[in-house]
Amino acid sequence: MRPRRHDSAWTGRRCGALSVLVTCILVSDGGHARAQEDGSSRELPPILIDGGEVPRRKKPPQSRHAAKPASTDRRIFVSPAAPPVSDAGNVASGTKGSPGMASELTVSGETLNARPFARPGEVLEAVPGLIVTQHSGEGKANQYFLRGYNLDHGTDLAIYVDDVPVNMRTHAHGQGYADLNWLIPETIGAMDVRKGPYFADEGDFASVGSVHIGLIDRTEKGLAQVTAGGFGYRRLLGTDSAKAGDGSLLVAGELGTYNGPWDNPDNVRKLNGLVRYTQGTATDGASVTGMAYVNRWNSTDQVPQRAIAAGQRGRFGSEDPTDGGNTNRFALSGRVAQSDDLGAWKANAYVVKSQLDLYNNFTYFLTDPVFGDQFHQHDDRLMAGANISRTLNGSFAGLPMQTIFGLQSRYDAIDLALTNTFQRSFLSNVRSDKVGEGSIGLYAENTVRWTDWLRTTVGWRGDYYAANVSSLFNSNNSGHVNVSLGSPKLRMVLGPFSQTEFFLGAGYGMHSNDARGATTTEDPSDPATKLSPSPLLVRTRGAEVGVRSKIVPGLDTSFSVFILDQDSEILFAGDAGDTEARRASRRYGFEWTNHYRPRSWIDVDVDLAMTHARFRGYDGDQAAVYASLAGYPEAQIGNAPGNYIPNAPPMVASAGITLGEKTGWFGTLRWRYLAASPLTEDNAFRSSATSVFNGRLGYRADNGWRIQLDVLNLLNTRANQITYAYGSLLKTDTLYNLCTSGAAPTIVCQNGVMDYVLHPVEPLTFRLTVAGTF
Fold first, then answer.
1. What is the pLDDT of residues 220-257, one digit of tens each?
2. What would the pLDDT profile of 691-748 be if each residue is shown by its tens digit?
3. Backbone dihedral angles phi then psi of residue 738, each to the nearest 5 degrees
4. Is residue 414 part of a domain?
5. What sign does the dihedral 652-317-171-368 (CA atoms) show?
6. Domain count of the chain?
7. Looking at the domain assignment, is residue 751 inside a domain?
8. If you count Cβ atoms within 10 Å of the first and of the last residue's Cβ in the chain, which end, N or C, has fewer?
């Protein structure tokens, strides 16, 4: 059997139904909740509740089987250049209450845009413990790391923008694919962060965490901004809003280009636009948002270390300069909310049309010694969904109580194709499928405040998934599957005691897998190899205890200890067209988050996250693989059985300081650290630690004009964005000649030469921005 050419982490894959943001309504004045007549929200009392890129190592045939506390004071920003517009009723972000867990927080758009970053997805690094990186071109979804997971392109991290899911289920490249390259950072109003399977309104993709990004409703002034930087970076941005009837109309547009330091330029060409109409407030209002995005790029994928060491490739070189892709996304969404004497309700709906064509070559000449291993992944989908929730305020035995009910639905109609290519030209088909996948999620949460210092939330969530797969080349891989799963949830908050609260959370969750894996019975590349379908839904379980304190003036600090189990880490190999089941896993660790603001012009944050991640049980099949490679150390090394989870970082740290008022000089210095990590299950290969500094210096005039200089990789660190270890073949390898001549065993040739494969951090880069308001 041949090794699979797959660029995904050894993590559980799943795709999610939209989790609607639950509107939290305070119990006040006779139990009624309402907005103030001026459109702002009331002060919320304590009763308010919170609503891998690696190819797979080959298994023997017999082993192929399935097995920050939120505030009501919302501020809207176009950019740090513009003074904030106080808007407590921002339609997008909604009203928020006291956090339900110590790890829950909200980050304002102003804070996000004060950070220097290289690409839009890096705004998510404001999430404590989260690393966002890239191993390929600037049109492909980022790589995410959180709580000991290599989340690949979004697996196990649910991401929403304006209540619309970003993660794609049953995706051509990887389950949960979450592309944020279309996000315009200056249009972010706030980002709400949750972690763990403890929230009933969070479903698929959210076992590790969820991020809900709310958009601004309007700007105080129009903005025109131009940025120019090294390696051909150019960006034009324009935003403006105007009063339209009883609401506001917001328009934003972005044009970007970038080549990068690569020997083969990225040649990115990106066009992005947003139109948004809002009326009213978060509890009594509505919004309609339209988005459009197109992008085309080349990509320099990871390069084997042996090629760099031998001088065959430069550090910024490429083994296949024809890799790259193109994508587009068009979305329309709407949201409406209304409060009444009983509580409140909220509903939203969306439709997204997206397409991706991606060309990658990760193993070079391992499978095809003549034309190489490039493959083309095609994903064309129409995604639609609708959600509604109802909040009821009341009492239980004279105690304040709130109950939330919700219904969430989503349907994806997907055309998928996988082909072998040479320089983006067709060679052969692997598989082609039409998939229809729908889901319905029902949830309920009940919160009771038992005393001034104790409140509990008990919840339950039920999910039903149904999928139909039509395999165009092999009817034996077609089929229909449906499954349901229930998940209880519990949260408890004690305090405050001296401005300190204690939190406990526990719950069951789930993640979905690629629908094709649930119906595939034959290897798409070798129909004689029979496969057992994998389950569509897989159980996860988690628990967390934490503490949050503001006892020190100006300091908001929190500490959480967590554990998360998955029954099986199942991987759909988008470049091979089938599924492989991995063992159960366990991760536990802690996160320590600190935000300190001693003065209005000083903002400091320091975060530390440490995780212990291991597979559970013994992998006898991998032991058989290791034995079969004896006599060929270049192939055998790194293939011994073990319990390490590849690319699971044991430590993530970050720190930053921002100085400056709304006008005058300002500056930012940020540091982020990703510790050395195991790259194979036996820990024979380990990545090097990555430590990078970014900085910003600028000046804001009182008329709204701004000039700033961003310095990325300030110390010009020679590090890697990401590192893998797997088998591949180059024409210069001794093993290549042995395999093409038939002198080496088939299993050895299918594995190739085990080696570090890396994608470097871009060198020191300057980007100058000039912005003006009108």
1. 999 999 999 999 999 999 999 999 999 999 999 999 99
2. 999 999 999 999 999 999 999 999 999 999 999 999 999 999 999 999 999 999 999 9
3. -65, -35
4. yes
5. negative
6. 1
7. no
8. C
